[in-house]
Amino acid sequence: MGQGFGCPEKSRKSEPALNQSMRKAEDGEEGREEAVERGDKQLRALCGVADLNNGAIGLYNMGLSCCLNSLLQVFFMNTHFTVILRRIKVPTVDTEQKKSVPYQMLLLLEQMQRSKQRAVYPHQLVRCLTLHNLKLFVQYDAAQLFLSLWNLIKSQITDGQLADRLTMLYTIRVQEYLVCQKCSFETKRDSNMLTLPLPMFNSCSQRLKTLEDSLCCFFQPELLTDNNMCLCEQCERKTPCLQGMRLACLPHTLTLHLKRFYYRKSSWTQKISYCLPFPQSLDFNQILTQEQCHPDAKEKADWQYDLFGVVAHSGLASFGHYCAYIRSLTEGKWYCFNDSSVCQVLWDDVKCTYGNSHTHWGETAYLLVYMRKNPQ
Fold first, then answer.
1. Residue 376 has pLDDT above 80, yes or no
2. Angle 19-30/32-47 helices, nearest 10 degrees?
3. What is the pLDDT of residues 35-65, one digit of tens each?
4. Which residue among 241, 321, 336, 343 is the active-site one?
5. What pTM did the predictor assign?
């Protein structure tokens, strides 16, 4: 949705030093054995040659680019993602390098980690994105831009194994089903999702009180009757059907999309700003029923998550501003990435993004990024 230039800084913020933590996490991900196998030269190529002791680096706003900046910081602070990014095959032709989104993201990451300044300009990456019809001075929706960025990254990674790792890192697997209420004939279809689009209201248009309520509502089956009846292959006619979705597999990095923007019949977009609390930890085994999970799901014991990032929107649906709150994976501290400004914050500051219907310009969480606990 809408974006603007700048927003007031929160209290209780202090300047961080994050890059060293990012480096340590990436080194741990690769492991000592690979370092020995590849040799010191290859290890430096993998981890980069950046001086990582310069503190966290912001990104200057280049023209309604706060949405892009926030998403880039969420990608870069996820060391599981940057390990994949550092392994990509570099295009050999200059024109291909300029069009490669993952390569330009890698160059920007290295530039940020080398920089002695408080922020850098993402010139080359922005030019690259314009070649793929992602223009400047456009008010993007963070959920849509995240999907566009991720698809560009995945489609341009030429190493099949790396592309598979990226898929496993972010992709949610579900099973959609339709059950005839006359003969119990069931049709099923497996599908992948990059985010779970969570409602703010239930089927009776009642406000949902918590994130857990929203998750339950999303996986709650719906009875299709009257004009919504579906054709049953076995009955060979339209019948009342139960339509729903079963959770089959959750990724290491789980992205939840709070549907705070909705379109009225007059084509006017409105923002839902009321409070929806979200927890620091999620256990899907405590939230979903057995019927809402795929019977063959084998990783249910690992469906426990900690909050990693919040992409928050302030302002109205037609105009506003994005920033990102991200928890360091090594330090456990929270930081606010607000374009060129990067500051340490407290959990109470993050909680301010729960929302408030009485504050139109207040920050409200829009994308929630959770990281799996104790990954295998």
1. no
2. 140
3. 334 433 333 333 332 323 346 799 999 988 9
4. 321
5. 0.85
pLDDT at residue 66 tops 50: yes
204 a catalytic residue: no
Report which of 142, 242, 237, 268 is spatially closest to residue 184, judged by C-alpha positions.
242
> What is d(CA 366, CA 347) in angstroms, rounded to the nearest whole number?
17
367: β partners: 257, 311
User: Which residues does 153 contact at the CB level (< 8 Å), separation at least 6?
Assistant: 101, 102, 105, 166
How many Å apart are CA 346 and CA 355, to the nearest integer? 17
Q: Which residues contact 319 (CB under 8 A, 6 or more apart)?
A: 2, 3, 4, 139
Distance CA 166, CA 86 (A): 12
Burial track 336-373 (b if 16+ CB lie within 10 A, e otherwise): bbbbbbbbbbeeebbebbbbeeeeeebbbbbbbbbbbe
Chain-centroid distance, C-alpha 226? 37
CA 236 to CA 230: how far, in whole Å? 10
Mapping DSSP onto H, E and C, the string for 229-247 reads CEEECCCCEEECEEEEEEE
**Average model confidence (pLDDT) across the chain:** 85
> Would you give the end-to-end CA distance of the chain in angstroms?
37
Q: Which of 47, 66, 128, 241 is catalytic?
A: 66
Active site residue 321: yes
Of the pLDDT bands very low, low, confident and very high (cuts 50, 70, 90), residue 318 is confident
The residue among 16, 5, 12 whose CA lies nearest residue 57 is: 16
Residue 129 CA to residue 133 CA, distance in Å, equals 7
Residue type at 67 in one-letter notation: C
